[in-house]
Amino acid sequence: QASHDALTGLANRSHFNEELDRRLIDAVDDETHGVLFIDLDRFKAVNDTFGHPVGDKLIGLAAARMRDLLPEALIARIGGDEFTVLLQSDDALDAEKLADALVHGLKAPFEIGTAHVVIGASIGVALARGPCEPAELTRKADIALYHAKAAGRNAYAIFGDHMDELLRKRRALENDLRSAVETCSEIKTFYQPVFSASDGRLC
After folding, report:
1. How does pLDDT run along the chain (203 residues), one tens digit per residue?
2. Residues with Cβ within 8 Å of residue 17, at least 6 apart in sequence
3. Neighbours of 178 (CB within 10 A)
4. Is 81 labeled as catalytic in the residue annotation?
5. In the chain, where do the E strands start and end?
């Protein structure tokens, strides 16, 4: 109970992180590991439309599909509709193929009672060879997930160094914009009044 998710029987966040730390620190130089971050797409709409009991059943069925597709992997539910996967050895070398299989597997319809439920998944993938800092690998998987969602969801993305550069530029732009607005040095806001065409009054 302390190490597993009650709804799905998968590992929980704490157990996943412990295993990730242990396996990455003890990894040999030619061993590859992969971390996948998985978000179910349109899950909130399922809860809103069919109710939480159907949503809970959907989480359980989605977890079962992941287990079927990744029988050797450590899979964890880390909250809500979010999952993480740790791949190693041959599975890690086939990470792209497995991520594609997950995307296709999770967009197949789920039959829950009389409900015909269709969702999807966005997946971020990060790979490391040899010993690696766990926090760095999960950070990269999280960035890749962001890119998968930005690509329109129901897709996967594998972390590349260009993603770090794009994120750095985005953060720099956000900081520059915030500074410009606060100091009124580079951006000024002007409000244009809107008038009614029928009577000329300000509306």
Report:
1. 889 999 999 999 999 999 999 999 888 888 999 999 999 999 999 989 999 999 999 999 999 999 999 999 999 999 999 999 999 888 989 999 999 999 999 999 999 988 899 999 999 999 999 988 999 999 999 999 999 998 888 899 999 888 878 878 888 999 999 888 888 878 877 889 999 999 999 99
2. 134
3. 10
4. yes
5. 32-41, 74-79, 82-88, 110-112, 115-117, 120-129, 156-158
Phi and psi torsions of 169, nearest 5°: -65, -40
User: For 4, which DSSP code?
Assistant: B
Of the candidates 41, 81, 90, 94, the residue annotated as catalytic is 81
Determine the Cα–Cα distance for residues 127 and 132; give it in Å rounded to an integer: 10
- Which secondary-structure segment (H or E) carries 21? helix 13-25
- In this structure, what token pair is assigned to residue 128? 């490391």
pTM attached to this predicted model: 0.80
Task: Tell me, letter by letter, the H, E, C secondary structure of 167-188.
Answer: HHHHHHHHHHHHHHHHHCCCCC
Cβ(55)–Cβ(67) below 8 Å: no
Q: At what angle do helices 134-150 and 13-25 cross, to 10 degrees?
A: 120
Q: Taking the mean position of all CA atoms in its chain, how far away is CA 75?
A: 14
SS3 at position 142: helix
End-to-end CA distance of the chain: 60
